[in-house]
Amino acid sequence: MAEYFISGFNIILPVLSRELDIPAASQTWPSSVFSLVTGALLLPVGRLADIYGGRPVFVIGLVWFLVWSLIGAFSQNYVMLIVCRAIQGLGPAGFLPAGIGLLGRIYRPGPRKNLIFSLYGACAPIGFFGGIFFAGLSGQYISWRWYFWIGTILLGLVLAAAWWTVPHDHNPSSNVKMDWWGTLTIVPGLLLTVFAITDAGHAPNGWATSYITATIIIGGLLLLCAVYVEGWVADAPLLPFDLFRIKNMVPLVTSLFFTYGVFGIYLLYASFYIENVLGASALQTTAWFAPMAAGGLILATVGGLVLHLLPGTAMLIISSCGFLVSTLLFAFMPDSPNYWAWIFPAMIGATVAGDITYSVSNIFITTSVSKDRQGLAGALINSLLFLGISFFLGFADFAVASTADQGMKKSYKVAFWFAAGCSGLAFVLVAGFVRIGKAKSDLTFEERIELESELAADVRREQMTGTSRGSDG
């Protein structure tokens, strides 16, 4: 359902821009504000899932998402739409980390966990294409409001299923606490910084505009304060520094941030390019995006059967190449492209990239942390996704706005070149610095710690025994 309200909204945005009279300077906001709010709130809400259990946070997140999706359908102007999209983003901030946390706690490392997370990943292309399909149908034949109403109905079905099937996982003995100082610095810091980046391209004087300068300075200072709080003040930091001492974590997280940023740019500007430059209707655009859904479903499901056979690094390299190919195809695309030669392979490349990246990163990160940090793992994974989308969309939008005098086609191609550069950087990071093996059967985090403690105790006993024998001699 999170994918439904990301992918489909990009398809229906041109229709919304006409009917709600959204100014060109504000057209990226209804799309990016949803991801921005979700990404900024994932860490504190993910902590709530670790404190109170995944089920209540999961269910409450769905309820919130349903209510604001319904309200969004009655938007009377673009300001109301943007507000509804922003508040709507709090819903996925609840159920996404809680969902990954639940799966991470329930399943042990190995082929079964690989399959489960791949099936979880397979839900993304289903929701992705569902959003595109109903957006295209609503935009071309009925009212754009039906896109929200259908989403609300689907959320009602999901909520009913969740109420009856999601297991209780609350551990009353857990010592996990809320980090309020981290929340008060991280959340507004992210919101203000990404707001400044996103709006700079349309501000009267660009980066020199007073409110852009003020927000980015305040946001940057808050993020610096967050680093200090998380590293030296908080007893239970939202983002503990020891998480980044896990082998491969820093280069992996950095590459994921760039990769998901490319994904956001591709989704928005591919739909804009197809509709506004190539002149396709909303329904035709839906059909052209169909390979992403079918390919994603196949890749995600089959991936669960081979993740324990192929090294994670190799799969991430394939993923990076997929985004590089898909963005370059749009960057070089001629005026009247053949669908099968240009658009179809671009869709397949983006599908390979998105699904493989999500599955491999989910399995690696959730397996590398303890059970009481599974909510944190889910929050980190999805923060990279949503913040990457918002952050890089802001820079892409700035690049497009700065080259608008060259015409729509050339300015959109600038966004694809920017995305291709980010894809290349992600490839270098993965190929040069990330070393992830096969996702095979293994001990859980707690079992590894316990085994290491037992081995250390055995070594100490042997040393003491040796010392005692030496004294006797």
Automatic annotation (TrEMBL):
Protein name: Uncharacterized protein
Organism: Zalaria obscura
